[in-house]
């Protein structure tokens, strides 16, 4: 794919929104490692299993690609601040890029936000408010969006919410994942890319990226894109199984932070890709996701969030069902770092033997 000599995502500026070099904010996002599995692939009988380590981004998730483009775009348009809402990772990411660009960031969060995720927003000095009842009451939710709308128009603020439905310009940053994958495989597409799906923005961005790849590169193939959801919040996968164009309605009972999104904002776009035959859906129980989180760490040295480990639960399921086979080139998008959800890290640690305290003399012979 076309590359300039800039670093990170700006290497692909020709395929991103037009932003002057002065306003292209970067903290070193993108250009993330593509790592081949040394153990788990062999254990499953997969010869070509790869991890795309989005956890290596500056704030620990792929949301940095969106924040980099979104905050730069806000600067380019002369906006005075950014405003939005988040369940966690997007907030940390936008807070970091807003800090770097000197723009204030006004953030409204759920009353029940994970304390660890809130801390990451606060250290970057965002102006955060928890909203009473936000996350439980639909009425409060719609008032939050009314407030965001009002403030953004009145004060010339950029609305930065990480879904195509709200900010398609910022979401263009996600496409760079696909360009990097194509280049990492030496100018080829992999066979299947397993993508965690909450609102569907990550999936949709990767699909748009591979559309660009197919358009710009002679003979390039569009890979199968696999939409992976928690069985407790699988409104898109259920709709795909029924052959429908819109996500089915229904609440979330999933415990996977980042994937508890019952009103999938970009669900329609995901279903367009799947219904066109360019991929399929997998839904997996949370217990399977948790055991894969542990196995990824202990067998392949990859500590990620449950929202990323879910892709391996889906790989195992797809292999058993014959949707992928031993020679398929398979990529799991490891969307976020393990430290994002320390409660889950603690849960894994609790299953291991306690760390012993010993006298060094007792170890010497
Ligand atoms: C945001 C997020 C997702 C889900 O992305 P959507 O665009 O909402 O589908 C998955 N994993 C991590 C780590 C995230 O931060």
Using only C-alpha atoms, the radius of gyration works out to 20 Å
Helix content: 40-55%
Can you write the helix and strand succession as a string?
Answer: EHEHEHEHEHEHHEHEHHEHHEHH
**Helix/strand/pairing category:** alpha/beta
Could you give a short account of the major beta sheet? 6 strands, mixed
- Count helical runs: 14
Overall pLDDT, averaged? 95
> How many structurally independent domains?
2
Shape: globular
CATH names the topology of the largest domain as Rossmann fold
What is the tally of beta strands? 10
Instruction: Outline the low-pLDDT stretches.
Output: none
Note the topology.
Elements: E1 34-36, H1 40-44, E2 48-53, H2 63-76, E3 81-86, H3 89-101, E4 105-110, H4 115-123, E5 127-131, H5 138-155, E6 157-159, H6 168-171, H7 175-184, E7 192-196, H8 201-216, E8 224-230, H9 235-241, H10 267-275, E9 279-284, H11 286-300, H12 306-320, E10 329-334, H13 342-350, H14 360-363
Parallel strand pairs: 2-10, 3-4, 3-6, 4-5, 7-8, 7-10, 8-9
Antiparallel strand pairs: 1-2
Helix pairs in contact: 2-3, 3-4, 7-8, 8-10, 9-10, 11-12
The structure holds pyridoxal-5'-phosphate.
Pyridoxal-5'-phosphate binds next to α8 and α12.
Keywords: Lyase, Pyridoxal phosphate
EC number: 4.2.3.1
Protein name: Threonine synthase
Can you offer a commentary on this structure?
By secondary structure, the protein is an alpha/beta fold. It folds into 2 domains: 8-61 and 172-349, Rossmann fold, CATH 3.40.50.1100; 63-169, Rossmann fold (3-Layer(aba) Sandwich). It has helices at 40-44, 63-76, 89-101, 115-123, 138-155, 168-171, 175-184, 201-216, 235-241, 267-275, 286-300, 306-320, 342-350, 360-363, and strands spanning 34-36, 48-53, 81-86, 105-110, 127-131, 157-159, 192-196, 224-230, 279-284, 329-334. The strands form 2 sheets. The chain has a 6-stranded mixed beta sheet with strand order 1-2-10-7-8-9, with helices on both faces. Strands 5-4-3-6 form a 4-stranded parallel beta sheet, sandwiched between helices. The termini are far apart.
